[in-house]
Write a structure and sequence with these properties.
Length: 450
């Protein structure tokens, strides 16, 4: 009897081991969030113990190691603690797919995988070594925030002092290359400008890549303070002309550049604003909603508009996050299926510290105080920061400066790619990373400031 019992246990252990090891390999899935689909890749390896990585190829080439992997029979649970990501899934009978759910903070969503091989995007403008300039990885402390920012300086090999810029990314967790759908626009910008004799410093957002801190607890104000520390660090470099130090910011990064310029930070001598908001953010977000619906062939109804405006009023209020969430859910009650758990997870984003801070920003008072040269570029097909209204605000409110230049580039989207409609759904399928005309104009403008 004991022998049969032991044999049964041995047989069971082999079954569990075999099933557990069936998780080995590469798994391809798509995380579907409101208005965006993110390819997701899990890789698992078993060598006496589990190891593995998670990758979101559209956001970054980085493979994030799992901090926890538990495989038991046909079930698996993994975590990436640094980003607060948890996933639980179940292996199919044929061991070729995993069905499960992912959670990050208040966000929960289904995420299913199939076994396979990830096919990389085609990116003809990708920048690869060897480089014709020097690259140096650096660490920059923000002591007040107890954060260390990791970045890369690219330096011309010619002697003397050079103009210099820091690159400040748009919203969402961004690495130093501003990787989106395998496009690395900041690496391309740094490569081009450095070849033209400009020192460039790009860096990982706090809590992203090699930078420390917690991204999900930061606001636009925090990212602005990070940018100030990076700017001062760049200004202190031996090959940098301190009288020619500026910021190139994209989207939220452009907003940060505008705010710092309006605050008249002494070390900031010029800014390049790439599709940065120039109108109050609550107005911008309403326009953004309308534009996104329009490219999808839809039209915003008066009821939709009223619900959105009420949501903004709640988000900007002094209510606690919990109370604001309750008010938002009540305001959305007339929308079908708005009271289920999935919808609640999506609404939870509106009460995050970043969103509540962001929605209250009005850049106009800062624009009115800018006295340094500004190069502002807007994209004609941009549905996230519509060109016409933001250009009008900048033209009306920016003090006149003969060195400033404001331009709209027809046919480009928010990422400054040549696009058909400007929809964010096109980003991944467009091979172009960044329009060269814009790059050339940026380089010419900076070098002519001398």
């Amino acid at each position: 009897m004991i022998k049969k019992y032991l044999l049964g246990l041995i047989g069971l252990s082999f079954t569990l081991l075999a099933c557990g090891q069936s998780f080995e390999g590469t798994w391809i899935g798509t995380l579907e969030l409101p208005n965006v689909k993110l390819p997701t890749v899990f890789e698992f390896k078993y060598d006496g113990e589990w190891s593995g990585t998670m990758q979101s190829p559209s956001q970054s080439p980085a493979k994030l190691p799992f901090s926890l992997i538990k495989a038991n029979g046909d079930s698996i649970h993994v975590e990436v603690k640094a980003f607060g990501v948890r996933y639980a899934g179940k292996l199919s009978d044929d061991r070729q797919s995993i069905t499960g759910r992912v959670q990050q903070g208040s966000m929960q969503a289904p995420l299913d995988f199939k076994k396979g091989v990830w096919k990389s995007y085609k990116r003809p403008q990708a920048v690869n070594p060897p480089y014709s300039y020097d690259t140096v990885n650096v660490s920059i402390p923000n002591k007040l925030a107890d954060v260390t920012l990791a970045g890369t300086i690219t330096r011309p090999r010619t002697g003397g002092k050079h103009p210099a810029v820091i690159l400040v990314s748009g919203s969402g967790p961004q690495d130093r290359n501003s990787t989106v759908f395998a496009h690395q626009s900041f690496k391309l910008i740094a490569d081009y400008l450095t070849k033209r004799g400009i020192v460039v410093l790009r860096y990982d957002d706090r809590g992203v890549g090699e930078s420390t801190g917690i991204y999900t607890k930061a606001t636009t104000g925090d990212f602005g303070k990070d940018a100030m520390e990076v700017l001062e660090f760049l200004r202190s470099q031996a090959d940098v002309d301190p009288k020619q130090v500026g910021i190139i910011g994209h989207s939220e990064g452009g907003l940060i550049a505008t705010i710092l310029a309006g605050q008249r930070i002494p070390s900031l001598k010029f800014i390049v604003d790439l599709a940065g908001p120039a109108i109050p953010i609550d107005s911008l977000m309403l326009l953004q909603n309308e534009a996104v619906m329009r490219v999808q062939g839809k039209k915003m109804s008066e009821m939709d508009r009223n619900i959105i405006l009420k949501n903004y009023e709640i988000v900007k209020s002094s209510l606690s996050a919990e109370k604001a969430f309750e008010e938002l859910m009540a305001n959305m009650r007339s929308i079908p299926e708005s009271q289920n758990a999935k919808f609640g997870d999506e609404i939870g984003v509106l009460v995050t510290p970043w969103y509540r801070y962001f929605l209250k920003i009005d850049p106009v008072p800062f624009i009115k105080r800018i006295h340094i040269p500004v190069f502002a570029a807007f994209a004609g097909n941009d549905v996230q920061v519509p060109a016409a209204v933001n250009m009008e605000s900048l033209t009306d409110n920016l003090p006149k400066n003969p060195k400033s230049l404001l331009k709209i580039y027809p046919g480009l989207n928010h990422l400054f790619q040549t696009s058909a409609s400007g929809s964010h759904l096109e980003y991944a399928n467009i091979e172009e990373t960044f329009d060269m005309r814009v790059l050339e104009d940026i380089g010419d403008w900076i070098l002519n400031l001398k």
